[in-house]
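The data are quoted verbatim here:
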Amino acid sequence: MQSDSKPIVSKKTSVHKFYDASFVTEYGKIESMRAARYNSNFSVLLMSMEGSDGRLADSDSVEYLKRMSGSVLESVRNCDVLGVIEDRQLVAILPETDYFGSLVAIRKISKTVNGFVAKENLPISPLFSQATFPKDGKGYGALVSTAAKRLAEKKNSLWVKLELKDRLFWEIIGEITNTAFKGFENSTFDAGGGYPLGENFIDHINDLIIKEITASPFKRGILYLVSKKLSSNMPSINNLEQLGSLSTKVFLVGQPDDNMRDIKNTSTLFLDDPRLKEAFFSLYLSEDGGYALICKENWGSTFTCFHTSDPFLVDGLINKFQIEYTLQEQL
């Protein structure tokens, strides 16, 4: 099949090529039928090149894609298929790849591509999105449509609007907690002594997250619970010990008290950082969405808080947190 299709861009040192839209579409249809027959996953990635000062001309898009081709090709597996579709967007078909696998692929590709863009000083900002079969669509065309919709949503995310991808974790925390956000998806507020929301509301939020995890024990996810002092008596984690195995990875982060013990279905990360003694946060990402709660302690047992249901921002915060503390970059 590949011998009948002319590649758009090739690289002599790689078995990979960029294929035209018609070839990729046919391959996507075949992969959809294969995944349906064997009850497996596959994912579609989209990459759009945003100009620094507006929409790129088609000729510029082709030129930049050619220059970036080596970086993209080096970042994928031999079984992945890449091509270009309308609007000069790059598309990648990733066989046997679920939602979290597609996010890992985006991290890997974007790291390489963004490094090349910075090195070459290109006036573009690559933007990535994904969709996974069968949850996001029953066929290749539906997956591309879902990924395109998410690409548009990502452009409206604080992650993109505030240009957070090149900033450090604690810089991002300072930015979003010191800015007044009022909205359904992102909001800042005060809590603690003298405010309608008391200090215990943090435990209530964490308890709701844990209840969502325990209600669907086979659903994949990742959760970081960061506290000033880790205790085996933390109310939000008591339910975890009553369950069998979970598909969600739960990490407890902070400094342990004298009675801290191993807690079933969790991993404990003992991090000694003064900044972690002044901030509490929960970062939760699942196949169905994301949620983050970040609270910075003020004087008089009060807190300045920010919370969000923006999955792109939550994914970015988790990645930055892992990089900040040299943790395994996992999802």
